[in-house]
User: What shape does this take?
Amino acid sequence: MQHLLLKVVRDHQTAAVLITHDIDEALLLSDRIILLGGAPARQVGDWVIELPKPRDEYVAELGAIRIDILKALKGASRRN
Assistant: This one.
């Protein structure tokens, strides 16, 4: 499904909004990740990913962003 989404967006020169709980999926598919947390939900992080797609070969760069997202998520859960 991930590859299909990328193909549809590319072929139709459009955008898509993806809502997921999977950080790795967000890193592979997104140009921008907005992290929501808390109750009521609020924005706790925002990352722009400027790596070309497909991103499978950019593991090191994505790993650093993944760690930053996990830290933001952990911080948001502590505030509740």
Observations:
- The chain has a mean pLDDT of 90.
- The longest helix spans residues 59-79.
- Residues 19-79 form one domain.
- The first strand starts at residue 32 and ends at 37.
